[in-house]
Amino acid sequence: MTRAPNPDRRRDASRKATLAAALELCVERGYAAVTVDAIATRAGVSKATIYRWWPAKSAIVLEAVDEAAPIPETFPDTGDLASDLHAWLSGILGVFHDPRLGPAFTGVLAESQLDANLAHQLRERLINHRVAQLDERMTKARKNSELAPDADLEVALDILHSPIYRRQVLHYPLPDDAYLTRLIALVMRAIGPTRAD
């Protein structure tokens, strides 16, 4: 007796093919030149299927990046805050440096500057829960006296992330490990337990 095809498995295969196609095309053509038509053709699915699942190209690419991004879902906690921050920021840089993910993430980031809804989706899907993990780790560090009791965590978070995104947006070379070490040391001097008042 022939077993009927599993429609859920077929849908999942089509979804994975679509996400893979979006990333491949971003590498080959650049994000701006990728179209839903091209993604559908590469994935072997219909445009109607794609539009049932995603409202636009940007949503496909955002989901693809989110699923493939190497940034850990939980913030590292080795007991050494500086080391944990270095690992975290290295994970963000890993997305930009990844030849498969970098063009896609950069494209979504650029488009989000002109599309408030996409910016909201970017924050909701990729950014907010990860920043919450960082904030939780920093709050714990403050409670454990790794940081000053009045350390301004909101400003510290902005300082830690800003150089990466500023350099990416303005096409400067991205920070290397030595730069990250200097950046983290600067922040730790500013908000660490022995900082100068």
From TrEMBL:
Residues 35-54 bind DNA. GO terms for molecular function: DNA-binding transcription factor activity; transcription cis-regulatory region binding. SUPFAM superfamilies: Homeodomain-like (SSF46689), Tetracyclin repressor-like, C-terminal domain (SSF48498). Pfam families: TetR_C_11, TetR_N. The keyword tRNA-binding does not apply. InterPro entries: Homeodomain-like_sf, HTH-type_TetR-like_transc_reg, HTH_TetR, Tet_transcr_reg_TetR-rel_C_sf, TetR_C. It comes from the Bacteria. Residues 12-72 form the HTH tetR-type domain. Keywords: DNA-binding, Transcription, Transcription regulation. The keyword DNA-binding applies. PANTHER family: HTH-TYPE TRANSCRIPTIONAL REGULATOR RUTR (PTHR30055), TETR-FAMILY TRANSCRIPTIONAL REGULATOR (PTHR30055:SF148). This is TetR/AcrR family transcriptional regulator.
